[in-house]
Amino acid sequence: MQSCESSGDSADDPLSRGLRRRGQPRVVVIGAGLAGLAAAKALLEQGFTDVTVLEASSRIGGRVQSVKLGHATFELGATWIHGSHGNPIYHLAEANGLLEETTDGERSVGRISLYSKNGVACYLTNRGCRIPKDVVEEFSDLYNEVYNLTQEFFRHGKPVNAESQNSVGVFTREEVRNRIRGDPDDPEATKRLKLAMIQQYLKVESCESSSHSMDEVSLSAFGEWTEIPGAHHIIPSGFMRVVELLAEGIPAHIIQLGKPVRCVHWDQASSCPRGPEIEPRGEGNHNHDTGEGNQGGEEPQGERQDEDEQWPVVVECEDCEVIPADHVIVTVSLGVLKTQHASFFRPGLPAEKVAAIHRLGIGTTDKIFLEFEEPFWGPECNSLQFVWEDEAESHTLTYPPELWYRKICGFDVLYPPERYGHVLSGWICGEEALVMEKCDDEAVAEICTEMLRQFTGNPNIPKPRRILRSAWGSNPYFRGSYSYTQVGSSGADVEKLAKPLPYTESSKTAQGSSSKQLPGHLLSSKCPEQSLEPNRGSIKPMQVLFSGEATHRKYYSTTHGALLSGQREAARLIEMYRDLFQQGT
């Protein structure tokens, strides 16, 4: 029978015991993505010595995943540095020479990023016809005018009318349609093409927002997301280089890979008196072994060795190891919180935080890379955009599972070919992306090839020689790509999600009683019934902190938002222990 072990301070290490007596805090960071690494790095740089990073998967980086095939690097996750002026990701990449090989074409100033701003987007219909360039330009100007209107509701406090249903998609679709239909100069055939293009543009927008449909994105909150000025940049050597730069300053033993967490037990010190001491494990050794740390037969409990109090937080890992801590920084995705928050925290999260998790949105945006022996597209083409003419009057972006491929908005041409070869990158989002993830590579390659033949009107396009694709929605450690403000949510929900626990003003909104703390297999002695009511005067602040892109009010969905959120939570703890570290200097 597997026993649970507790990782404590080394009783034989005078330095560790001295730090514990001085109050050197132990911090556990859950997740080794940009937020987790940024938090750990900031803490270490400010003198924190007892920091552990637990990463569920076998790699660092989180939703940054660069895959090298041959001489080329492909991004399954984050691709662009969005903006340069004051963007910490940009400055980190620039300072370390990561942008030296970035071509002018890969510095895009446009709102919708392509792999290259050179060339033109080819808009193709399902009848195999290319939409004339002047029609595309006219529609694009009209769409962008309406897009700018969507920003005004938040930025200028413009009231949202009932017809829009507070939805970016509903508002945009109806506004653009009305303007197209009211244009006296366009012939009916041109109007039909432009009406069909609305759905294609909204698919692209949905992929950018990582929503199932723009109909689900809040109109009143849409303008709060803030774009950093400057160009979007691609890192030729891979976005993972930024992750590696962050990790360089973190000693290898601090990051534990393949270490999923089952539950964070918080508010422990206020709910149960100190029990029998346990034999601690060695400092820095948090890897599961055969149970030498629990040979006395006692069930473990997170107890301090040198202080007459409990640890306020205990992290229970899937391998049954128990790691006590003063503070835990949780960086898991909003998708994981949505599916697991009820079992991931004991006691349960406060009601307002749970409500914020439910209200905020996260969807799946996937990429499909297709490599061909030779290009079948012209040298001036930077993308192939798919317009279904029968969707001119459609009011939905949802398709039955067997028609999942209709959600593919198009394929971008990876540029330059000298670096990537002849590769197209397709985009798909929402529930249809989840259906795609369940298909095998052969089926996806076959369907994509048929689509390319249909829309180009070229029946001789060969099947790709290689396919590579992401699967963020079905990955249990992510459950989605990145967050958005869903209809019914606002930036205030982002703030609630980011708020540390326990709340300083009150903990009464917590779901479940504080008496429901560590389960029996983690306790060495039962709390007497009269001791179950916590002593609120002894609550330690900031036991559980939250970071990750979904917790940044202005920069959610971005890599710089993730990094800044990790630094933000580290700053809370640095400020909390400022006097301690000043005394130690």
Structure overview:
Residues 272-309, 504-538 are annotated as: Disordered. Residues 34-267, 309-574 form the Amine oxidase domain. One of its GO terms (cellular component) is cytosol. InterPro entries: Amino_oxidase, FAD/NAD-bd_sf, Flavin_monoamine_oxidase. The chain is α/β, with parallel strands linked by helices and 585 residues long. It contains 15 helices and 23 strands. It has a six-stranded mixed sheet with strand order 8-18-19-20-17-21, with helices on both faces. Strand 4 and strand 5 form a beta hairpin. Helix 4 packs across helix 6 (188-209), helix 5 runs antiparallel to helix 6 and helix 9 (351-359) crosses helix 13. Mean pLDDT is 86; it is low at 9-22, 270-303, 506-518 and 523-537.
Which class do the helix and strand fractions yield? alpha/beta
Largest sheet: 6 strands, mixed
Within the largest sheet, what's the order of strands? 8-18-19-20-17-21
Shape designation: globular
Q: Give the distance, in angstroms, between the N- and C-terminal Cα atoms.
A: 47 Å
Oligomer classification? single chain
The helical percent reads 25-40%
Topology, number of strands: 23
**What low-confidence regions span 5 or more consecutive residues with pLDDT below 50?**
9-22, 270-303, 506-518, 523-537
Q: Give the integer mean of the pLDDT values.
A: 86
Figure out the total of helices.
Answer: 15
Residues in β-strands, percent: 15-25%
Rg = 26 Å
Protein name: Spermine oxidase
Region (Disordered): 272-309, 504-538
GO biological process, one term: spermine catabolic process
Cofactor: FAD
